[in-house]
Amino acid sequence: MDPVSWLFSAYLNLVQQQVSDIYGTEPKALVVEYEGEQVPFAFQFWQIQPKSVCRPHEQDVQRFSRCTVKAAALFGRLCDELSRQDDSSWQLPKYRTMYCSAAIGYRPMIAEIADAKQSPAKLAERACNQAILAAMESEDEALLAQRDKACAAVR
Could you state, in order of their start, the residue ranges of all structural domains in the chain? Predict the structure, then answer.
């Protein structure tokens, strides 16, 4: 989705809900697609509720992290785009303030998960254990020699 389309989509989502309360006292939940990521969040009193951002993804740390990073970028982009528009409606300044405040104050959760690197000692111990298993109840001299060689590095 190109930038103009997602901005227009986000704005239409808000306008379509016909904010019935000028003061924004009713909580509103939104999901905005930004750069291929669904970014859910809620706002009330014209402030984005930080704990609501990407909340459905909290159980998947990698997805949650990716979503919160996209959310921070989305808030900044909406702030920039809304700052360029004239105040043609009473809602526009409120949305601009809401997104600009979120762009400044919202902190994404950044996580990177990777396989733990095993130390050479752990790798040697693993090789020894595998050689022991292979040589168990075997009288094959080659397997016994491999076991002795693999386990000599551990001792």
Answer: 3-105, 120-152
The residues that bridge with 72 in the sheet, in sequence order, are none
- The residues near 111 (Cβ < 8 Å, ≥ 6 apart) are 61, 62, 64, 65
Q: How far apart are CA 124 and CA 1, in angstroms?
A: 51
Q: What is the pLDDT of residues 123-150, one digit of tens each?
A: 889 889 898 888 887 788 888 888 888 8
pLDDT tens digits for range 70-98 = 999 999 999 999 999 888 788 889 999 99
Q: Are 55 and 40 in contact (CB under 8 A)?
A: yes
- Write the DSSP assignment of 48-100 as a string of letters: E-GGGTTGGGTTSHHHHHHHHHHHHHHHHHHHHHHHTS---SSHHHHHHHHHH
Bridge partners for 30 per DSSP:
41
Closest to 16 in 3D by CA, of 6, 30, 4, 34: 30
Helix (H) or strand (E) holding 14: helix 3-16
